[in-house]
Amino acid sequence: MSRISGRTVLITGASSGIGEACARRLAQEGANLILWARREQRLKDMRSEMSRLGVEIITSSVDVRERDRVNAEAEWLSATDNIPDVVINNAGLARGFSKLQEGDPEDWDEMIDTNLKGLLNVSRAVMPLMIRAGRGHVVNLGSTAAHLTYPNGNVYAATKAAVRSLSDGMNLDLVGTPLKVTCIDAGFVETEFSIVRFRGDAEKAKNVYKGFRPLTPEDLADTISYVVNLPPHVNILDLIIVPTQQRNIYVVDKKGD
Predict the structure, then answer these.
(1) Is 63 buried (19+), middle (13-18) or exposed (0-12) by CB count in 10 A?
(2) 156 is catalytic
(3) pTM for this model (two decimals)
(4) Of 153, 150, 84, 158, whose CA–CA distance to 115 is shortest?
(5) CATH T-level fold of 8-241
(6) Which of 150, 156, 226, 250 is catalytic?
């Protein structure tokens, strides 16, 4: 049984990777979708591909860093009675890979503005609508880097540690409402993540996952599907998911797939 069927799910960063996989998985389960991402044409292509599933799909070019844009979209959702039942705060990135004393402040700003402030912008704009509607589930995509920082991962890890803390705070602030918040901290997942971090260096990005089998976006979509399909009285606060060959940030069996 799909509890998400007929419900409305807002996904940020929906044009690729985990966001796209979640969109496809939840649409197959009968969920209506609101897809936000910067790549408008990619969203339109996804909507066209998934239209055969018979669900409603709304797409909009939204950069979560732009607070006014996010607020305007949320106001439109309220005015058109498209209030999400589920929000998946997926938009995020890593940029650069260097020691703090050698880091690029523009990289820091991009990570902080997307991973942290972007999540805040979306949550602040949409959560009041969900509270008024008397229903809702917020799923925040974190990282195992929130639990243990790795070399050269300084600012990225800090943003994900903040996501973890914010998820705790959001759950506390929502006491007395039916809204739930889940933070999902993933280990190695092969997406565009490393390509973005290394500014398009595909070979360098591929080496990140060499010698072991990482998670796929579909693995994360399976997990998120499970979480959002739980009964209303069940809330998973934190969930850590890693590939079997990874046991923490540092311990990964790279003897082969």
Answers:
(1) middle
(2) yes
(3) 0.95
(4) 158
(5) Rossmann fold (3.40.50)
(6) 156
